Amino acid sequence: MTRKTPLQRRTLGRLAVLTALALLAAPALAQDGWPNRPVRMIVPFPAGGSTDIVARAIAQHLSGVFGQQFVVDNRGGAAGNIGTDAIAKAAPDGYTIGLSTSGPLANNKSLYQSMPYDSDKDLTPVALVGEIPLVIASSPALKAANLREFVTLARGANPSLTIGHTGNGTIGHLAIEGLKARAGIGLQIVPYKGDSGLMNDLIGGQVQASSAPVSTFIANIQSGRLTGLAVTSRTRFPGLPQVPTALEQGIDLEATVWFAVVGPAGLPAAIANRLNQEINKYTSSAEGRARLSQFGLVEVNAPPQALGALMKNEAAKWKPLVEAAKISLQ
Q1: Residues 170, 326, 117: CA angle, nearest 5 degrees
Q2: Which residues pair with 39 in a beta bridge?
Q3: Which of 44, 73, 315, 319 could bridge 106 with an S-S bond, Cβ 3.0-4.6 Å?
Q4: Which segments of the chain are extended strands (E)?
Q5: Which residues contact 24 (CB under 8 A, 6 or more apart)?
Q6: Distance of CA 305 to the CA centre of its chain
Q7: Inter-CA distances, 243 with 42, 194, 233, 235, Å
């Protein structure tokens, strides 16, 4: 064997290092080329609803940023489980993501006896988009100006106050169970199928109070046809600044509908982080805030890790209430 000179040995050593570095960089370089074709954004609810419209606004923004079309694909059914399962079952190559909500990402795992996916294991958190707080509202005929007075009424001479929600297992329903447990009161819960019947009965006084996303009742509270007793976000809702939070009134109740972008498990961190940055940039812009506010959404910026923690914490928060109230969607 020919003996190599020191110069040759040094040259070969450098080549070996460069080769190793090139191999390490290959995945990053491949990701840097993403996206080089259209990206599908699954929405687990029908077209025309707030989730769909918010998704289309985000998709339009991302299309402009990345130079590839982000195409919305509506996959409704099973309270969001069908579409969210399609996100979980997609290839983790960055070409399928989705905009889902707190139901299929957290609450549904307690409401359904079996789930087709595990939100903690089968999804990659990408970006928290925003949240819609609930509002507990009442008929003006009810002699309560706020939630504290409503609780006092429920504890006193009228322990069977009626309170409606827009459907079994909805966040409005869960919030009522939370209110009963945390305030130690009894309430007669009246379920409705959607918000129109609830709205009519609430204004007419057939039901005394309601719990639903703020977007459902904001116009009637602003006009004085309904009384806003409390919002259930951590801070006051900008559209109803005069309505105090439940927390301000000494009642430990926080309940919101939140929207988030997720991908399948194994989505490369570089892609998730880049999407997170661009989505946060859009939702915190004047244009993004104006678009979200049309649906009662308040923008929330958070890194992927914070979204992952939220998904786990919200599921754990509602599970004991669902079990105690024996709420089931299956």
Answers
A1: 60
A2: 70
A3: 315
A4: 39-43, 70-74, 96-101, 123-138, 162-165, 188-191, 209-213, 227-231, 256-264, 298-299
A5: none
A6: 15
A7: 35, 24, 11, 10
Rounded to the nearest 5 degrees, what angle is found at the Cα of 222, between the Cα atoms of 216 and 228?
Answer: 70
- The structure's pTM equals 0.86
Which is it for strands 188-191 and 123-138: parallel, antiparallel or unpaired? unpaired
Cα Dmax for the chain: 103
Omega before 35 within 30 of 0, i.e. cis: yes
The structure tokens 């290839």 sit at 91
Type of residue at 242? Q
CA distance 28 to 321: 45
Distance CA 271, CA 290 (A): 27
- As given in the structure block, the two tokens for residue 1 are 């064997």
How far apart (Å, rounded) are the C-alpha atoms in residues 73 and 78? Answer: 16
> How far from the centroid of its chain's Cα atoms is residue 54's Cα?
12
Distance between first and last Cα of the chain:
75
Q: What is the pLDDT of residue 195?
A: 87
How confident is the model over 6-21, as pLDDT tens digits?
Answer: 433 443 344 344 334 3
DSSP state of 103: I
pLDDT score at 5: 40
**Cβ proximity of 307 and 272 under 8 Å:** no
Q: Residue 159 has what pLDDT?
A: 59
Give the model confidence (pLDDT) of 222-266 as tens digits: 999 999 999 999 999 999 999 999 999 999 999 999 999 999 999
